[in-house]
Inverse folding.
């Protein structure tokens, strides 16, 4: 299971400067939903700005900016 802090840490380490771009392999639909939900929570808290959040065949792709 992933929580908001773990996702934020992964996003901070997934880019250059305050920008991030990361793909998560989907293990199941619950995991896919969880990543999107946590990312949108972080965005609503003002910690990140999502530019793209999309699902591909076997991955969830997040692209954006860290605001922390």
């Amino acid at each position: 299971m992933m929580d908001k802090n773990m996702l934020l840490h992964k996003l901070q380490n997934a880019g250059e400067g305050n920008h991030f771009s990361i793909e998560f392999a989907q293990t199941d639909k619950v995991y896919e939903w969880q990543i999107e939900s946590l990312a949108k929570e972080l965005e609503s808290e003002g910690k990140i700005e999502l530019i793209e959040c999309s699902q591909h065949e076997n991955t969830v792709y997040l692209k954006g900016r860290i605001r922390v």
